Amino acid sequence: MEKIGIFGGTFNPVHNGHVRLAKHYMEQLGLSRMLVIPTKTPPHKAAPDLADSDDRLAMCRIAFEGMEGVTVSDMEIRREGKSFTVDTVHELKKEFLDAQLFLLVGSDMFLTFRKWKDWQEILKNAILCTAARTDGELQALYACSRELSEFGKTMVFDFPVFRVSSTQIREKVKKGESCRGFIDPKVEEYILHHGLYKGQDKMEKNEKDYVEIIRPLLKPKRFEHSLNVAEQAVFLAKRYGEDEHKAYVAAILHDICKNMPQNEQLQWMEKSAIILDDNLLTQPPVWHGFAGAEYIQQVLEIEDEEIINAVRYHTIGRAGMSKLEQIVYLADLTSKERDYPDAERMRQVVLHSLHEGMREALIFAVRNQAEKRLPLCIDTCQAYNEYLREETDRRA
């Protein structure tokens, strides 16, 4: 039976990490063919500085030129509207009737796979594969794999990590820095020749600018809370070796949509390319995180994915949270004005260990939802299971 890999993504731009990953998958899975498929309009992530689809297609063809068994396809670019993976899988299943399909996705997409359109249908027709991008992701990926295995076959690989991202490449281009060693020289030449990513330069706001932005949008107590959360986030960033400026920006903006009318919050959520959890939609008090993530991208033109995710998940958490996401989540829970019965103990736990703080915070969140007889969001469940499973593993 022929084995075909489906390697999709924005490839904005394609880099050496993508190429190396493709080679690993070809070898490990014994693929006879791999289809590299740049997406036209990504449904699962916002990309405000997304290069034109024809440019991304051309760069992929340059990067994968001469790699045996690899074909760069424009099938999703030719498709009208947003590109949903389930449509691609169905199309390929019809074209390659007797082939075994392997869907290759990034770790962030793997962890949020249940939010994809018709994800169960995808698992019926393709084996879902991923690899850790960072050293700390592997356990979260294994846990998610076990949960998804009920619906289809999944595979998690521990390939050597190539520490580069498309975001880093774009930032280097904006600053006029060389991308040597990160992308194919011919791809870099293409980027420079066509002036890609240069037009996205925006004046970086300082911390005082963001304070003045949120001031008229929030009620006085909520504004004060945001200042306190930013202060706590910077303190935790210093303690745990995270970028203090990013921690401040994410924290000062985390509640930017909190006092927005619920119907407007819902409108901002619906503008997002994230496929929303039905349980989340029944709980308006947590909408502002997802609305805020979209708002800061579209209105404030913030492009940093870590800041965006820190705002998006500060109310519900998720599996595989970055250190910045954890810091903002815990800063929100332990800011100095918080006076719930267990607040001081939580501050001490967070001071001792970020990981222990997340575990205790998630136990608190799950207990609170249970007492109110409210359903848990899938992201919260996965985060809770991840931290509790790690605790159980340590005791074993």
Strand line-up across the major sheet: 3-2-1-4-5-6
Span between N and C termini?
Answer: 41 Å
Name of the CATH class of the largest domain: Alpha Beta
Q: What fold name goes in the CATH topology slot of the largest domain?
A: Rossmann fold
The tally of domains stands at 2
The low-confidence parts are: none
Number of helices: 20
Mean pLDDT: 89
Helix/sheet category = alpha/beta
How would you name the CATH homologous superfamily of the largest domain?
Answer: HUPs
- Major β-sheet, in short? 6 strands, parallel
Shape assignment: globular
CATH architectural type of the largest domain: 3-Layer(aba) Sandwich
Q: What is the radius of gyration?
A: 21 Å
Strand content bin: 5-15%
Order of helices and strands: EHEHEHHEHHEHEHHHHHHHHHHHHH
Helical percent range?
40-55%
Q: Count the E strands.
A: 6
Sequence-ordered SSE layout with sheet pairings:
Layout: E1 3-9, H1 16-29, E2 33-38, H2 53-63, E3 70-72, H3 75-78, H4 85-95, E4 100-104, H5 107-111, H6 119-125, E5 127-131, H7 138-148, E6 154-157, H8 166-175, H9 185-194, H10 207-214, H11 220-240, H12 244-253, H13 262-271, H14 278-281, H15 287-298, H16 305-312, H17 323-334, H18 343-352, H19 354-371, H20 378-395
Parallel strand pairs: 1-2, 1-4, 2-3, 4-5, 5-6
